[in-house]
Amino acid sequence: METMTSRERVLKLFKGEPTDRPVCFSGMGNATTEGLNKLGYKFAHVHLDAQQMAETAVTTPQLFGFDSCVLPFDLCVEAEAIGAQINTYPNSDDLLYPTIKEKVIHNEEEMEITIPEDLVTRGRIPLVKEAIGIARKTIGETVAIGSYLLGPFTLAGQIMELNDLLKLSFKKPDKVGKLLADLTCVIVAVAKEYEAAGVDYLTVREMGATSDVLSPRVFKSLILPHLKNIFEQLRVPSVLHICGKTNNIIVPMVESGATAISVDQKNDVVDTRKKLGDDALIFGNYDPYNVLVSGNPELVKETMRKCLEDGVSAVWPGCDIWPTVPPENFKAMMETMNG
Amino acid sequence: MATEERTQEILEKLKNAVIEYDEDAAKEGAQEALDEGVKPNDAIFDGLVSGMQEVGKLFEAEEYFVPELLMCADALYAGLDILKPHVEQLDLGVKGSVVIGTVEGDVHDIGKNIVKMMFDVAGFNVYDLGRDVPLDQFVEEQLKTDSELVCLSAMMTTTMVGMQKVIEDLKKKNPDVKIMIGGAPVSGDIAEKWGADGYADDATNALADAINMVSSLKKMKEEAEAREKQK
Ligand code: B12
What we know:
Number of strands of chain B: 5
Mean pLDDT of chain A: 95
Helix content of chain A: 40-55%
Radius of gyration of chain A: 19 Å
Oligomer: heterodimer
CATH topology of chain A: TIM Barrel
Radius of gyration of chain B: 19 Å
Number of domains of chain A: 1
Strand content of chain A: 5-15%
Bound molecules: cobalamin
Structural class of chain B: alpha/beta
Largest sheet of chain B: 5 strands, parallel
CATH superfamily of the largest domain in chain B: Cobalamin-binding domain
Helix content of chain B: 55-70%
Shape of chain B: globular
Distance between the termini of chain A: 10 Å
Shape of chain A: globular
Number of helices of chain A: 14
Strand order of the largest sheet of chain A: 1-4-5-6-7-8-9
């Protein structure tokens, strides 16, 4: 029996208090084709219109009983405010996520960036804020509203060539460190705006720093200090998400100071739980594509049960929920939460 | 001519330059090889490439990560640039051209760049279209360069479907072209279903597969030519 609203559930979870049933939510994008079709909106357009963005985000809890509503859906918002240009593929009928078309930094010399004074009024930051407000008005206090930001390293990879960033992390760690410090200011400034707009929690996505790409050593020396700085300044509950291989950076992830950590299907959660103890908030860790989209309801249920058995604190996807998730799979996921 | 001992020393220097991502040492070693009469082919394969193989092992053992790999590749390229003009044909039995890129809507290019490097090393002519490549461009570039091989990379399940269109189009325009696909969501099954000729889960396997395909293509061509002659 459900005795709490989704929002109560999520807020209690973050406080470490018991909930009526396991929480099933996300801090990353979760627009669905089902929702888009009901509204008659095109994916390429919802990134550019606050009303459409909010309505789309709201359909996920409304249609499926998901415990959260998250917006935006792409990873370009902060980079755009700094000065990058984006491509939303307006003429494509395929489901394509916006990407960076023109970077801000083109060579090592350009790494000394000046953060625009009016940063938080640039690009789509006002639009996302407005969308958060509209979403709140639409669903009231019943569903938790979340938003996300990129981590400083991943954001750096959006505004300069990732290959160069990776190499310079070794060759010129001071220069990279300075850039990450600048971007940390950007992230905190944007986070404050989202907090003011009324989000219940924020996720910092630092997927560029996964151990599939970067060594745990560099993660600790170069990136962790900035993450600590960010989480220290957030007021709402926070989540640090890193996908891919994360078992050997799980302890520094917790040291970042985030309220919870989020990992994907590559993480051995049994081991993580053992390392971190009973009180740590660990969110995860199902494969949003191979289980939720291309699996069947049986596989979905089995996977959700396994996540809970392995010891996650809340069932949560390894990345964005893929728009084409079949409704019966989404429903199967939510059903598992009720036992 | 360098003595056997000195040759070994130079090869060792080239190998270590790659492993220790030391571009200057790679350049120096390459120049020494040329000056002292070490065969450029040996310098490339027993020096630089042998170093890269070692790097591959360090990567698998999680001692090296992507940044190290990229820096090792830079050292390798530094040596290769000096040696390449002095080799007539790299002694792999095949010499081919390849068009490579990450498909439209997808900006994940770390994996693609690693695969590309393997082709560079093996002496292929590589036409790199970059990332987020409009699907038609693969077909255009293949026709323009008459490449034997087209390599498509995708890291997302949504962009992966674009590959199917490119494969269809390419096969229509040029049935002989060989197509390889890869990237995390791709599998051997998908490659087969969509009519790609090859799939590999990492860069080393990609190269081995590509060499086989291009060899068999060359062989087919030669056989066809021989048959023509007999007529
Ligand atoms: C780094 C990264 C990014 C960076 C990319 C920067 C860049 N320049 O590449 C940024 C931050 C920009 C990014 C953005 C996004 N990402 Co991303 N990203 C990753 C991440 C963490 C690492 C990928 C990587 O480079 N791996 C290392 C390389 C070496 O491995 P590889 O690419 O697999 O390549 C090897 C093989 O596959 C093979 N290979 C590769 N290509 C080819 C080609 C051929 C022909 C052959 C034979 C072999 C071959 O050989 C390579 C070498 O061994 C993965 C998660 C993960 N841990 O894997 C997610 C991931 C790929 N991203 C994902 C998503 C969802 C996104 C976004 C949509 C998020 C959003 N909401 O916008 C955006 C999309 C942007 C876009 N439209 O492209 C998902 C994709 C899910 C899916 N199944 O579709 C992943 C899997 C994360 C997850 N856990 O779900 N991302």
